[in-house]
Amino acid sequence: MKSLLNLSFACILLFTGFSALAQKDYSSWQKFTKGELILETTALAPGSLGTAGLRITLVDHWHTYWVNPGDSGSALRLSFRPDPGLSVKSVQMPLPTRLKSGPLVSFAYEREVLFPIELEVDSDVLPGRDLKLKMDAEWLVCEQVCLPAIASFELKIPVRSLAEVKPGGFFSTFQKTRALLPQAGVLKAERVHLKEEGKSRLLLQGWDASAREFVDFFPYKNAGFSNSPVIRSSVTAKELALDLEKTDLAVTQSDRIGVLVSRSKTSGALEAWSLGESGWRFEITKAESETWKHLGAMLIWAFIGGLLLNLMPCVFPVLSMKLLGVLKLSAAHHNEVRAQNFAYVLGVLVSFLLIALLLSAFRSAGSLVGWGFQLQSPVFLSLLSWLFFALTLNLLGFFEIDFLNAGFGHRLTRLGGLTGSFFTGVLAVVVASPCTAPFMGVALGFGLAQPTWVLLAVFLSLGLGLAFPYLLFAIFPQFVNWLPRPGPWMSWVKKIMALPLLLTTVWLLWILAQLLGVTAVMIVIAGCVTMAAIFLVSDWRKSLAQFLTALIMLIGIAFIYQSEALVKTSADSGAARQMGPWRQFDSNVLQELDGRNVFVNMTADWCLTCKVNERLVFSSPEVLEFLASKEVVLVKGDWTQRNDDITRFLDRYRRVGVPFYVLYSERYPDGLILPEVLTVSSFKDWVSKAIP
User: Fold this and answer.
1) 466 with 344: CB under 8 angstroms?
2) Rounded Cα gap, residues 607 and 313, in angstroms
3) What's CA 236's distance to the chain center, in Å?
4) Is the distance from CB of 81 to CB of 288 less than 8 angstroms?
5) How far is CA 559 from CA 249, 291, 524, in A?
6) 399 with 532: CB under 8 angstroms?
7) CA distances from 319 to 325, 488, 621 (A)
8) Mind listing the pLDDT tens digit for each residue in 352-379?
């Protein structure tokens, strides 16, 4: 019974960090918008073009954004995974509407919008087959607040003979949308510099004033024009001149201008004219059948990343406990050594597989979740603080916990030892999750973009890497013969091993202070003091002491849960921390800094790797002077508390945790991703590569 309770507590500890994600409805965007991948015709013919489309519907008063969202917002992002024999040629964006909110202007869609996707079927595809188009989409929906919508779609595309291709049920919807698609190549645009400060003129050749009249102009992002309406328009026989406000941002690509809207004088219908390249970007990944090519490399990277996790400061306290258990086994029978270490490996692997399933389920439901999220939960931090303090008391000799005892004297102790090894494996995964080791971020990002079975394989490989040192002891138990035999010296080792556990408790309390302030920390400390007093002055039965300890934990958790709203105000008042030369990250900062050299540092207080890099590299006067010479703007995103802007940014690069570093420059406009572990020299080398 006790072993069952101990095992249940291990599982509860694993799930507690993720339970906070379920307390808030992060998939609530589904109440306001819906996406659907549709086909214009009943089928496509071999060697021909066809059209699919992403149809987005929105409830009243909500909107989503054009390729240039305007002064705020975020454009649609699409990523395609077509079957072999099927290719995506282009994605088109229909004409938006201009929305004004005070001084801000947005270019957006309301109620319903269809984004046509031009497809091509290879000529060697035989009729009768069905091809699949898989697509990941992210769009922002806004009213008074904005919610990120993230969804995956799959469309079955029948391949039939040309005679069998008929208009589908959405044919009329596509026809209506085509009337709102900008036509390219009709009007030629020329920029004219005006001496008048803050203005620029756009001359349009090929304009027919007798057939149409000017309505509006929507600039593309980074075209050099502000989002404000046209200041003045003038028409000659075959030329239209538009006077526009200029922006302070440099024009990064002169061929991106905008979309002109006119109205036909005969029919009264709106017309759209594309001026220059739209700059619309979408991603086409390898076909799913080629996933196997990358899977092998990603599994190796995940294994190496898991192996390197053993060197991360997050995991050291738990590994010190496991090392102590291995030392106790040095005089044990080889079968006992094998069983103990296999139990630890099993705890690690089961934990990683459960986390993979949880991440897959949450993300499929539209939630933005990632690696290390549990340390954003005050309840989880409180439980973990008490657990590490209890383990510290155990190693200091205040009391004995059977499920951490690796000795073998009788059946119950032997069963408890196996449970304890399994529990230690679970604990290693829990405290390892704030860390992101080299190679690990890419592998996890790849896994989250793939089907669930691929994600499970990646997490399993990651777990094997973390557990590998002890897997060797399980496979080759004779290795323990090289270890020193147990003796009186072990009592001193236990006391030394208690120090990193106590320091971990202090570190967890510091993180809790960043989230909820001093009140929550005092509650947890009170629980620690009471817990120590119980085991110090009482000779009650162990089961009663464990019951009282659990009662203290429950009362403390109830206080923290109820006090969260009250303490949040004081936490918010201290949220604007001194950031020195760093600019705070938000959803618009990269748009404002577009065209400049920008270094983005995604960090969190609970990420020890982040703190080491910040102290040794980013705070170095040598590095700061070097960055200033390269005219690099420093941007920092603090993920200590949940921040959806940061989560969306990480998800954009297929990353699930911090640290994450990316450098933007003229050479790398889409960003150069830097490794997780940096030195002063390596960081300067990366910057020099991006900014010669």
Assistant:
1) no
2) 10
3) 53
4) yes
5) 51, 49, 10
6) no
7) 10, 22, 35
8) 888 888 777 765 554 555 565 666 677 7
Q: Measuring CA to CA, which residue among 78, 161, 65 is closest to residue 106? A: 65
Give per-residue pLDDT as tens, 447-480. Answer: 666 667 788 888 899 889 888 887 887 777 776 6
Query: In this predicted model, which residue has the larger pLDDT, 144 or 616?
Result: 616
pLDDT (tens digit per residue) in 314-348: 666 666 665 666 655 555 566 776 787 788 888 88
Task: Say what the alpha-carbon torsion angle 672, 675, 680, 685 is, to the nearest 10 degrees.
Answer: -40
Residue type at 432?
A: A
Would you say residue 604 has pLDDT above 90? no
Contact 445, 312 (CB under 8 A): no
Return the DSSP state at 376: G
Cα torsion angle, 650, 656, 659, 660, sign: negative
Q: What is the mean pLDDT of residues 661-676?
A: 86
Question: What separation in angstroms does the CA of 422 have from each of 342, 344, 350, 463, 467?
Answer: 8, 5, 9, 13, 12
Angle at Cα 105 formed by Cα 103 and Cα 32, nearest 5°?
120
Q: How many Å apart are CA 245 and CA 224, to the nearest integer?
A: 9
Q: What is the pTM of this model?
A: 0.46
- Helix orientation angle between 411-432 and 2-23, rounded to the nearest 10 degrees: 20
Tell me the β-bridge partners of 50. 119
Report the alpha-carbon distance of residue 148 to residue 158 in Å, rounded: 32
Quick one: tokens of 491?
């009592």
Stretch (H or E) spanning 578:
none
Reading the block at residue 322, the tokens are: 């496991």
To the nearest 10°, report the CA torsion of 376, 379, 311, 419: -140
Picking from 561, 490, 480, 473, the residue whose alpha carbon sits closest to that of residue 519 is 561
Neighbour tally for 99: CB within 10 Å: 17
The alpha helices in 538-679, defined as continuous H runs, are 542-573, 589-592, 608-613, 621-629, 644-652
How many residues are recorded in the chain?
692
609 touches 676 (CB < 8 A): yes
Please, are residues 231 and 244 in contact by the beta-carbon 8 Å criterion?
Answer: yes
Q: How far is CA 153 from the centre of its chain?
A: 19
Contact between residue 373 and residue 504 where contact means Cβ atoms under 8 Å apart = no
Taking the C-alpha atoms of 366, 363, 508 and 494 in order, what is their torsion angle to the nearest 10 degrees?
160
Pair 505, 392: CB distance under 8 Å: yes
CA separation for the pair 504, 321 (Å, rounded): 13
Across the beta sheet with 199-205, what order do the strands follow? Answer: 188-193, 199-205, 239-245, 232-235
Number of Cβ within 10 Å of residue 407's Cβ equals 16
Q: Residue 156 pLDDT > 70, yes or no?
A: yes
Tokens, residue 678 = 């940096």
Question: pLDDT grade, residue 115 (50/70/90)?
Answer: very high
The encoded tokens of residue 573 equal: 């008042």
CA distances to 13, 23, 217 from 656, rounded to whole Å, are: 21, 20, 39
